[in-house]
Amino acid sequence: MKLKKVNYKPHGYQAFSTEFILEHKSAGLFLECGLGKSVITLTAVVELMYNMFDVSKVLVIAPLRVADTTWQDEIEKWEHLKCLKISKVLGSKKNRIMALYKKADVYTINRENVPWLVDFYKNDWPFDMVVIDELSSFKSPSAKRFRALKKVRHKIKRIIGLTGTPAPNGLLDIWSQIYLLDRGERLGRTFNGYRGRYFHPQKYINGGIPADYAVNEGGEEKIYTKISDICISMKALDYLKMPECILNKVEVELSEKEMKLYRKLERDLLLPFEDSDVDAANAAVLANKLLQMANGAVYDEFNDVKYIHDRKLDALEDLIESANGKPVLVYYAFKHDRDRIKARFDAGEINTSEDIAKWNEGKTQIALCHPASTGHGLNLQYGGCTIIWFGLTWSLELYQQANARLWRQGQNHTVVIHHILTKDTIDQRVMRALQDKDTSQAALIDAVKAGTGGGDYE
To answer: What residues contact residue 376 under an 8 Å CB cut-off, 6+ apart?
Structure first.
């Protein structure tokens, strides 16, 4: 059944943002989840393409599921976007090539295929406007997707970067994103030059190699000032009547025997079992193994699962019971988390559009998600209002985006976000790291906050 299209009545901040895109050939919109980045951008596309005749072919680069569903859903939803034709450059190489030859206005592609697309066209790049949905996924200057897009940046007439988390791990992440917008005009043409101007090393490793950079005194303000003319930022709380969001920590405690196993791995980077070992070659692997143990199981050297405890499963059971049959969205970190949860509970997963529809219709009581696969662009706010983090992620970006699947515009209930944390383990460090990064993130957002004259609650 085809849904009736909706007339678009933009909020003041949406009209402001669309106008900002029209007025700037390069624009960064740091808009929090729920503010309608897609419809804001597509409204500008219609104006540029059919009224101003300024662009003819638009490429949208997005996470896979967003490229597959979200942008098409927006075009199908709004009456004023009905003139736009979309082609999804996804799937096999044959399907991607067929989609590129299809006559359309907007072409969507997942970010992993950007290097392929650039190589496919070589010197005949056809897209005069590019929209990067989740610009922060281009935060690494050494990533293939960044280097590929950099090659054709000079052929792009208009470029829009959309994200709610521009600096998920600090201001070093900003350089490559801003470079794609302005080709190095504001923060310099090289990452090393940017780092050298605004940051200093806090320590040196391996005989004098600088590491662990911190921003110079006054550096933040200089960076914000440099980019403020082409970037605007808005917080959902400033412009929408957002429901209340309650953050809750649920601590579980290991037995003496279980804690001894945890401490042994932490101390020795090795945990021997009768038939195999759990070993950690370096600090990064150790952190990952400790997170697994805090959750209750860990992979050994043969990638088999060694079960340590059920403390978090017991806490999860209590939280599900306290929900009194209402739907809960459970974020897990590792496959063995998912498998152990499914072994104890009648839980479904959110992997497909059918799963999303089932959740939003209230037909899934316990839905399991990995934050990396459901973090961007998916609207899950209609199916429930309770999130449970069984295992945390180090990524502030994934953490915030995952929470925003429920705490966003269209949610009619108070959102409760539970974090199950194992006492005296790495869980506490991860929680603190997320909170500390959020402070830096908030500083950037506030610095480039749009001057639209206050909140808009219409």
So the answer is: 62, 63, 65, 66, 133, 134, 401
